[in-house]
Amino acid sequence: MNPVSITRDGKTCSGTYSIAKGILSVTYAGRTKRTQIGSTDALTLAEIVLGEMIDVRAV
Q1: Residue 42's closest CA among 16, 24, 54, 15?
Q2: Which pTM value belongs to this model?
Q3: Greatest CA separation for the chain
Q4: Per-residue pLDDT tens digits for 5-59
Q5: Could you tell me the CA-to-CA distances from 56 to 19, 21, 44, 46, 53 in Å, in that order?
C-alpha cells in the first residue's frame, strides 16, 4: 500500500492506494474505491479518487 493525501479547506485527508492488474484501489476511512488505470499517473489518479471519496462523505 502506498500513501496518498490531499488537503481540502485546510484539512489534510490521508488514505492508501495500490495497483493490481491495471486496477487502482484507494482506501479511505474504511471504504475502498477502484478504477482502471489509463494514461494518468497512478499517484495523480489516486488523489483524484480520494477527492471523490471525501466529497461523497461530506454530503
Answers
A1: 24
A2: 0.89
A3: 35
A4: 999 889 999 999 999 999 999 999 999 999 999 999 999 999 999 999 997 665 4
A5: 22, 26, 19, 15, 5
In a 13 Å sphere around the CA of 42, the CA atoms on its Cβ side amount to 15
> What element of type H or E holds 23?
strand 23-28
**Distance of alpha carbon 7 from alpha carbon 42, whole angstroms:** 18
Which residues neighbour 23 within 8 Å (Cβ) at sequence distance 6 or greater?
Answer: 34, 35, 36, 37
> Which amino acid, one-letter code, is at 57?
R
